[in-house]
C-alpha cells in the first residue's frame, strides 16, 4: 500500500531533550516536506526536500533540522525542543516537482513539550 | 503574516445543495493553488489544484475557480454530501516547493 508513515504518532517530552520524528514513504517520491498545524494558524511549512541531499527552509524553520540521506526517509530533528514547538506535525511527499501534483500526507505526530 | 486566508472558520450546508468555500491570498507571486480536505485524526488529502494560467478546473463534484485580479479562489462542491463534512484547506505556492496554507474552513453537510 502506497503510504507515508510517521513515528512516533504521539510524543510527550521535556524542554531541551533532543528528539527525532521519522518520516518514510514507499512511493519513490522525489519531493518531501514537513508541516506543523496549530489552532488558528493552519498548516505551516517547516522544511522541504526536492531530492536526496537537497533541502531548504520553509516558512517556519527555526528550531528544526532535517536530513535527506535516502530518498524514502526525511526525519525531522528537534535538537532542543521548547514548549512553543508543541504542535501536530505532518510529513508529506509528492511525485516529481510539478506543483499541482498532489502531496500525500502522513497521519501526523502529536508532540507535546513540557 | 498570513499570506493565505480563509475568513470563514465554518460553513453548514444542506445535503444536495452547493458548498462554496473561499480563500484569499496576498502574494501576487503565487502561481499554484490547491485544496485539501482533512478528517479528524488523519492527514490532509488532496482534492483539486489549479495553476495561474487557468481560471477554472473541474473534477467531478469539485470545481475550483481562480480570480487572479482579486487574489481570490473558491471551491465549489455540487451536490454536497454528508461525507464531505471535513476541514478544507486552501494552499498556494510561488514555485512548487514552498507552500502556504490557509487556516481552514470546517464544512458540515446536514443530511
Q: What's the β-strand tally of chain A?
A: 11
By oligomeric state, this entry counts as: heterodimer
Provide the succession of SSEs of chain A: EEEEEEEEEEE
Beta-strand residue fraction of chain B: over 45%
SSE run of chain B: EEEEEEEEEEE
Q: Low-confidence runs of chain B (pLDDT<50, min 5 residues)?
A: none
Provide the structure class of chain A: mainly beta
Can you summarize the main beta sheet of chain A?
Answer: 7 strands, mixed
User: What is the rounded Rg of chain A?
Assistant: 13 Å
- How would the global form of chain B be characterised? globular
Explain what you see.
- The complex is a heterodimer of chains A (114) and B (111).
- The mean pLDDT of chain A is 95.
- Chain A has 114 residues and is an all-beta fold.
- The termini of chain A are far apart.
- In chain A, strands 2, 4, 5, 6, 9, 10 and 11 form a seven-stranded mixed β-sheet that branches. Chain A has a four-stranded antiparallel β-sheet with strand order 1-3-8-7, with no helix packed on it.
- Chain A is built from no helices and eleven strands.
- Chain A has strands at 4-7, 10-13, 19-25, 31-38, 42-51, 54-57, 65-66, 76-78, 87-94, 104-105, 109-113.
- Helices cover 0% and strands 50% of the residues of chain A.
- By secondary structure, chain B is an all-beta fold.
- Helix content of chain B is 0%, strand content 54%.
- Chain B is built from no helices and eleven strands.
- Chain B has strands spanning 4-5, 10-14, 19-25, 32-38, 45-51, 56-59, 62-67, 72-77, 86-93, 100-101, 105-110.
- In chain B, the strands form two sheets. In chain B, strands 2, 4, 5, 9, 10 and 11 form a six-stranded mixed β-sheet that branches. A five-stranded antiparallel β-sheet of chain B has the order 1-3-8-7-6, with no helix packed on it.
- The radius of gyration of chain B is 13 Å and the shape is globular.
- Chain B starts with a strand and ends with a strand.
Amino acid at each position: 500500500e502506497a503510504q507515508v508513515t510517521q513515528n512516533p504518532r504521539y510524543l510527550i517530552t521535556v524542554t531541551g531533550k533532543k528528539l527525532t520524528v521519522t518520516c518514510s514513504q514507499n512511493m519513490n517520491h522525489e519531493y518531501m516536506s514537513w508541516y506543523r498545524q496549530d489552532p488558528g494558524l493552519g498548516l505551516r511549512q517547516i522544511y522541504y526536500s526536492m531530492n536526496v541531499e537537497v533541502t531548504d527552509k520553509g516558512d517556519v524553520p527555526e528550531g528544526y533540522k532535517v536530513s535527506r540521506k535516502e530518498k524514502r526517509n526525511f526525519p525531522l530533528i528537534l535538537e532542543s525542543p521548547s514548549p512553543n514547538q508543541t504542535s501536530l506535525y505532518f510529513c508529506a511527499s509528492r511525485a516529481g516537482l510539478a506543483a499541482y501534483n498532489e502531496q500525500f500526507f502522513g497521519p501526523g505526530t502529536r508532540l507535546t513539550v513540557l | 503574516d498570513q499570506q493565505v486566508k480563509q475568513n470563514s472558520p465554518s460553513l453548514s450546508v444542506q445535503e444536495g445543495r452547493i458548498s462554496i468555500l473561499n480563500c484569499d491570498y496576498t502574494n501576487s507571486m503565487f502561481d499554484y493553488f490547491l485544496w485539501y480536505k482533512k478528517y479528524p485524526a488523519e492527514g490532509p488529502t488532496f482534492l483539486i489544484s489549479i495553476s495561474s494560467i487557468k481560471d477554472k478546473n473541474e473534477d467531478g463534484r469539485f470545481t475550483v475557480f481562480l480570480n487572479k485580479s482579486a487574489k481570490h479562489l473558491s471551491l465549489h462542491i455540487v451536490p454536497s454530501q454528508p461525507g464531505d463534512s471535513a476541514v478544507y484547506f486552501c494552499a498556494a505556492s510561488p514555485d512548487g516547493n514552498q507552500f502556504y496554507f490557509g487556516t481552514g474552513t470546517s464544512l458540515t453537510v446536514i443530511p
